[in-house]
Amino acid sequence: MDDGLMSGFLTFLKWAVRILAGIFVAIHVYALALIWMPVPGTILMMQRAMGGETVRREPVPLSKISPHLVRAVIAAEDTRFCQHDGIDMEAIEKALKERREGKGTRGASTITQQTAKNVFLWNGGGVPRKLGDMWMGVFIDQFWGKARVMEVYLNVAEWGDGLFGAEAAAQARFGKSAADLTEREAALLAAVLPSPNKWRVDPPGPYVSRRAGTLQARMRVVRSQGLAACVLGASEPQPSLSRPQPNQPAPQPEALPDLPTAPETGPESDEITDQPVDEAAEIDAADEDDFNTFLEGAQERFGEATDEQVVTDEAPEPLSPEAEAAQSETMDGGPVELRPRDLEADGLAEPEVDEDSPEL
C-alpha cells in the first residue's frame, strides 16, 4: 500500500472513530435528558408511520397508570425487575440451560433492556444491537431509577394497530383511561405484549384469554411478594428482609404459575398463516436466538481455554539402580560426604572430664 492510500485510510479511520464517539456521547446525553423530559418518539414509531399506519400515542405520568398494569407487565415480562441492575444474569443462565437441553428458547430480555431498545435502538441488528441494549439497560437503570424506567416503558410499548403506550391502548381497547384499568384488562394488555400485532385483546382468542388468566394469578403473587415495590412504593407490600430464626426453615415464597405455551397451529400460533405477521416480534425473537448462540459459543471457547490439565493416577515409572541408591542415601540422612561425622567412632572426641577426680 502506497503512502497516499495509507494516508487516506488513516484519515477515514480517524473520522469514523470521531463519528462513532460522537454518536456514543450523544446517545448518553440524550438518555440523561430523558430523566426529566418526555420521550419524543422512537424508531419503531417512525417505521410504523412510514409504513402507512396511524401512530396513536398519549404519554402520561406513572401516577396516571393503573398499578394493575405495572404488576401485569412485571408478571409477564420481568418478575425480577426490582432485583436486577438492568440485566438479569439469572434469566440468561436459565435461557442457555434450556437451550442446551432442547427445551426451546426463553426470552431473557428485561423490561429495562426492552425500554433501552425501544428508545435508543431498533429492531434487528443481531448480537451488536443486543449488546447495545444491555449496555444502555445498565446505564438507564443506574441513572433513571426503576420508576422512571417503568414509566417510559409503559409510554412507548407497542400494543398493535399503531397504538403506543398504555393510555392509547386503554382508550382504544377498553374505552377508558389507563388509570382505570381493572386487573383483568391489565392482564389482557400485558398478555399480548410479546406479539401485539398478532394477538388480539378485543376480543381475545383462547390462548390470549388463558394467558391473561395465568397472568392474573401471577399478578397476585407479584403483589403479595412485593415484586413491584420498587415502582409502586409504599402502596405495595415490602419484600421481607428478616432472617429466619435459628433451627427454623426459611419460609418459601409462593411460586409463580408458568405461563401457557402458545399453540403450534391456528391464528395465535407462530406458524405462517394469513394472519398479520408481527415482524418486530419475529426480529426480536431472532435476535434473542442469535445472542444465545453467541453466548453459548463464548462459553465453549472460554471453557476450552481454561480447562485445567487432568491429573491421572498412573503408577510411577520404576527408578534406575543409581536413582534408588541416591534416594536411599537421602532417606538415611543424605549423601555420605554431607552427613555429620561420628567423632567418637573416629577417635577425635574429647574425653569427658570427671568432676570428682583430683586435679592434676
From TrEMBL:
Transmembrane stretches, start-end: 15-39
Quote one Gene Ontology molecular function term. peptidoglycan glycosyltransferase activity
Entry's InterPro entries? Answer: Glyco_trans_51 (IPR001264), Lysozyme-like_dom_sf (IPR023346), PBP_transglycosylase (IPR036950), Pep_trsgly (IPR011812)
Q: Where is the composition biased (Acidic residues)?
A: 267-291, 305-316, 345-360
The membrane topology of this protein is:
Single-pass membrane protein
EC assignment: the record states 2.4.99.28
Q: Which domain of life is it from?
A: Bacteria
Q: Which GO terms describe its cellular component?
A: peptidoglycan-based cell wall; plasma membrane
| Residue span of region Disordered | 235-360
- An example of a Pfam family matching this protein is Transgly
Name this polypeptide is given: Biosynthetic peptidoglycan transglycosylase
User: What is the source species?
Assistant: Hyphomonas beringensis
